[in-house]
Amino acid sequence: MTATARNPFSRSAMRDRFTAWIPLPVAFAFLVTAAAPAAAFDLKTVIDKAQALAKQPYEAPKKIPDFMRELSYDQFRGIRFDPDQQLWAGSGSRFGVMLMVPGLFFTHSVKINIVDSTGVKSLAFNKGYFQSNDDALMKKLPADLGYAGFKLTFPLNTPKVHDQFLSFAGASYFRAVGAGDNFGISARGAALDTGLLSGEEFPDFIEYWLERPSAKADAMRIYALMNSKRLTGAYRFTVRPGAATRVDVQAVLFTRDQIPLLGIAPLTSMFYYGENTARPNGHWRPEVHDSDGLAIHNGTGEWLWNPLLNPSVLSTQGFNVDNVKGFGLLQRDRRFASYQDPEARYDNRPSTWVHTEGNWGKGRVMLIQIPTNSETNDNIVAFWSPPEAVPAGQQLRFAYRLDFGGADALDHAKDKTLGRAVDTHIGRGDLVGGGNAAGSYRVLIDFQGGKLDKLPADAAVGTAVTAQEGGQIIEQFVTYVAPSKVWRLSILARPAKDKPLALRAALRQDDQALTETWTYTLPQDNSFSEHAP
């Protein structure tokens, strides 16, 4: 399995730049807020549509004309929405809507409705919203082409400029930024069988309802209807742009058929290489990634940090959790020096944290890492999944919040007591500077923050290091590195024969945790092995 290009927000496409799964009838009222301006429309309207749709045979969305799907990237990018035409411009509204034309990656249109005090109105396609230097192409656009999706604008960074901060387009993908961020990581409505050899199914948002906010509103609501062969769903998104843009999600799902691996609150990102991997031959930038680690706040109160990697073969990991509090894919390293790329600005890519609401029960946070030989493909997926396959005929509900922004601006950053892993370095353990143990690896983890920052450099800091999969810890010790003001845990470890090196580590003092728990699985076939190219 290779890295997917299914996400139309991958670098190649956009370089220009819940509660536990339980039956619906149980106490659903908390999901429904005050009615929209059109009193006859609310989330229940969408739920009824999703439930009725689930009882009907699946019909794939009608594809747009072939010539639109066969456009080159430059041709498609050349069709631009006129920003002066954005919805609600001139009305004093702080929110605006820019529409997206289908084509290339966006192979079908979606229905978009506006909900306001006059009722619910379908938004008809208008060629006049778009501009292009290719007059011949513009003449060929069908009058009923429809829209691929939309982008929301808001004065996010300066009071008088409407910045694009959130977009919905392509399958059930959406992505957002906080103030000062560049677009990167994406979220999805749901993921079906991601990482399984049977193949992945991509649900589509097929219809949207945009509730027009009042002129001074700082939040906006969006409703969406989702459909796929095995799943339908009703969603409400309450969006609050800011230093970290918040998206509160209410979701109700209906299964048409059994789903072996249902992904809730899925996040999709890119990791090509970083400080914990060897740099690919010929590449000059120190690191290239949108996210550098998976963070989990499990039901026991423990914080986990798992640095990402770009494996040579598909990697699927499951972290067992009971009533998980939150998880996210983070771009923890926001130092420009780590990337040295003034165009892509990977140092400004947002992190995304999923804050769960209610009791999600037993489940797994899944991390899917797909091999890629380019930064143009999204190859990292993380989501929560029930412990078993979800049968057909189920009604499921979930509530959660997504925060998009710099890692320090997220809900995840509120716990200030624990130190965090800020860097992970790995090398062979039989080379000068690494050690003299054949078949071993030297692993260095730099921790910083929390109580660690208040300790003197000669403090007695202990370790808690374990190896799984039959691995052997040869040595471990902690030192304070004054130039970078970090506490460095150095581990020399050897994996068992024909096994990956799987480690867990944390710093402790007087039997109290000083840091989050760092976890890592180094595959047998890796960029540091003796036989690596």
Detailed description of the structure:
- By secondary structure, the protein is mainly beta.
- The protein has 5 helices and 33 strands.
- The strands form 5 sheets. The chain has a 15-stranded mixed sheet that branches. Strands 2, 6, 7, 8, 9, 10, 15, 20, 23 and 24 form a 10-stranded antiparallel sheet that branches. Strands 26-27-30-29 form a 4-stranded antiparallel sheet, with no helix packed on it.
- Strand 13 and strand 14 (245-255) form a beta hairpin.
Features:
single chain; mainly beta; Beta-galactosidase, Chain A, domain 5; Immunoglobulin-like; 2 domains; 15-stranded mixed β-sheet; ten-stranded antiparallel β-sheet; 5 helices
Write the layout of secondary structure elements.
Elements: H1 11-14, H2 43-54, H3 66-69, H4 73-77, E1 80-81, E2 96-100, E3 111-116, E4 119-122, E5 130-131, H5 135-140, E6 149-154, E7 163-169, E8 173-176, E9 186-188, E10 190-192, E11 204-211, E12 220-227, E13 231-240, E14 245-255, E15 262-269, E16 271-273, E17 288-289, E18 293-297, E19 303-307, E20 315-322, E21 326-330, E22 351-356, E23 362-369, E24 380-385, E25 395-405, E26 420-428, E27 441-448, E28 462-468, E29 472-481, E30 486-494, E31 501-509, E32 512-513, E33 517-522
Parallel strand pairs: 3-11, 19-33
Antiparallel strand pairs: 1-5, 2-6, 3-4, 6-7, 7-8, 8-9, 9-15, 10-15, 11-12, 12-13, 13-14, 14-25, 15-24, 16-17, 18-19, 18-21, 20-23, 21-22, 22-25, 23-24, 26-27, 27-30, 28-31, 29-30, 31-32, 31-33
